[in-house]
Amino acid sequence: MIRRYDFLVIGGGIAGISFALKAAQYGKVALLCKTNLHESNTAFAQGGIASVTYAPDTFAKHIKDTLIAGDEHCWLPAVEQVVCNAPTQIDELINWQTDFDKNEDGKFDLHKEGGHSEFRILHHADNTGYEIQESLIERLHKHKEIDVFENYFAIEILTQHHLGDIVTHHYPNIECYGVYALNQKSNHIHTFLSKITMLATGGIGGVYAATTNPEIATGDGIAMVHRARGVVKDMEFVQFHPTALYSPGDRPTYLITEAMRGYGAVLRTQDGKEFMQKYDRRGSLAPRDIVSRAIDNEMKVRGENFVYLDVTHKNADNTQSHFPNIYQKCLEKGIDITKDYIPVSPCEHYLCGGIDVDLNGRTSINRLYAAGECSRTGLHGANRLASNSLIEAIVYADKSAKDAAQIIDKLTFNEQIPAWNDDGTSLPEEMVLITQSFREVEQIMSSYVGIVRSNLRLQRALTRLNILYQETESLFGRSVVSREICELRNVISVAYLIIKQAIARKESRGLHYTIDYPKKNQLSN
C-alpha cells in the first residue's frame, strides 16, 4: 500500500506532535507512532521545562548556565535560539491548554534544578511531561489535517539507495522521499511517500540495561539516518541521571526528578553522611555529570549498589504536595519519603548527540528534518542542563515547520520508489536469538560504555558488538521483517556510533569521562 502526504512525522512526543500541529497549516500530515501516543519519552519527563520567566532571571543567565553545563562544547547560536524563543513557545503550550503550577499570588511556581543559577523551571507537580503530552494529544485529535497511525513502525527512510543508486558517505544531495513502515497489526509493510519528513523518534535508552526511558526508546531515527549515510554527531555524550530509584529489575527505572534536589533534598552515603561537598562547591545541586560520577565513585569505593537521597528534613505536607507521584511510587516500595531516605543510583537517561541539524532542524539529508532527543542541535554540548530538553524540542519543531513551509510547494512525490521486497525470507528461526542478542548489547554497553570509560573497555565493547552485528545482519537478511529484529538492528547501530565516537574523543569532556585522558580534579574508576 502506498500513502502520500505533504508532511510525514515519525514519533509522537512533544517534538513530533508540535511539529505536526504547526505543519498542518501548510498541508496534509501523517504522524506515525510506534506504539500509542501515550507512550513516549515526553510523558516520562517529571521535572519540568526551562524558560526565563521572571526577574531577576535573564536570557544571559540561562545561556551562561547552559554553556557551563555543556562543558564548552555547546553551539552558541543553538543555545541563544532555544533560550530566547522559549517564552514564546511556553505561551504556545499554555494556549494548547497545558497547565503549569502557580503560587497563591497567581505567578508560576518555578523550580530550581542542578546547574541553574535561578528559579526557571515551569512544572505540573512532578509529572510535567505527562501533562504536556496529554494536552498535545487532545489538540492533535481535533485537527482534521492530521492522520495518526498508531502501531506503525518505521523501518527505513527512503532515499536514492532505494532507486538502485549507490549511496556512500560522499554521495552528494541525498534526499528523503518518505519511509517504509510496518503495520504491526497486519504485519504488512506500507510505503509512505512524503514531500517533507520529520524524525522525532526520541532516545536510545534501550541500548543500556538500566534506563529511565520506556522500552520503545531504541534509537530508531538515528539508526535509520546512519544507514542512509546521514551525519550523526556527539553520540559519546550519554547522560546518566544521578538519581533513579534503586529497584533492581524495574524497567524502565523510576526517575527521582532533579527538582527534588532543587527543593532541598541531600545526597548521603548508606551510613548517612553527606558527600557531594567533596566533589563540587554546589553540593547536591551540581550538574548531572558531576553528581553521577560522584555517586558512581562512592558506590565503587564502598562496594555498595546505591546511595540515599534525603528529603526528610523538609515539611512533609509540602513534600507530598510538590512530588505526589514520587511519594506514591516510593510508598508502593515501602518507602515514606517524608520519613525515610530514598535509595538511588545513576541510570541512563538522555542522549546529548544524535542526528546533526542546523538552526532550522534540517539534517544533512535533503527534505529530512529532526527534532527532540534524536537530534543533535548543539544546545546541550557535552552535558544537558536539566529541563532544557522539552523546550529544545518544541522550539526546533517550530523552526522546522516554518522552514519546511517555505519549500513545500516546490516539492513533489517520488513515484519511482519500489514496494518493499521480502522475497526469499521466512519467519525468524528462533525469537530467543533476538532476545538474547538484545540482552548482550545492553550488557556490553552497561559494562564497558557507562559513566567511566577507558580505551580498553571501549575496544572490548567494539569487538563484542561486531560479532552481534554480523549475526544480526545475517538473520535480518533471511527473515520476514518484524519490529523485534528491526529494533535489534537499531540498538546495535546506535551502540556502534556511541563506541566509535567515544574512541575518537581523546579527552574527558562533560558526560564522556575516560581514565586514559583524565580531566584535572575529576574522578576515575
Outline the fold blueprint:
Blueprint: E1 2-10, H1 14-23, E2 29-33, H2 41-44, E3 49-50, H3 59-69, H4 76-95, E4 121-122, H5 128-141, E5 146-150, E6 152-158, E7 178-183, E8 188-199, H6 220-227, E9 232-233, E10 238-245, H7 259-263, E11 266-268, H8 288-302, E12 307-310, H9 316-322, H10 324-332, E13 342-351, E14 354-356, E15 368-370, E16 375-376, H11 389-405, H12 431-448, E17 452-453, H13 455-477, H14 483-504, E18 513-514
Parallel strand pairs: 1-2, 1-8, 2-5, 8-15, 14-16, 17-18
Antiparallel strand pairs: 3-4, 6-7, 7-8, 9-14, 10-13, 11-12, 12-13
Helix pairs in contact: 1-5, 1-11, 3-4, 4-11, 6-14, 9-10, 12-13, 12-14, 13-14
Task: Quickly describe the structure.
The chain is an alpha/beta fold. The chain has 3 domains: 2-237 and 352-410, 3-Layer(bba) Sandwich (FAD/NAD(P)-binding domain), CATH 3.50.50.60; 245-346, Flavocytochrome C3, Chain A, domain 1 (Alpha-Beta Complex), CATH 3.90.700; 431-480 and 482-514, Methane Monooxygenase Hydroxylase, Chain G, domain 1 (Up-down Bundle). It has 14 helices and 18 strands.
Q: Could you please describe the fold and organization of this structure?
A:
By secondary structure, the chain is α/β, with parallel strands linked by helices. It has 3 domains: 295 residues, FAD/NAD(P)-binding domain; 102 residues, Succinate dehydrogenase/fumarate reductase flavoprotein, catalytic domain (Flavocytochrome C3, Chain A, domain 1, Alpha-Beta Complex); 83 residues, Methane Monooxygenase Hydroxylase, Chain G, domain 1. Strands 1, 2, 5, 6, 7, 8 and 15 form a 7-stranded mixed beta sheet that branches. Helix 3 crosses helix 4. The longest helix has 23 residues. The protein is globular and about 65 Å long. 52% of the residues are buried. The model has no long low-confidence stretch (mean pLDDT 93).
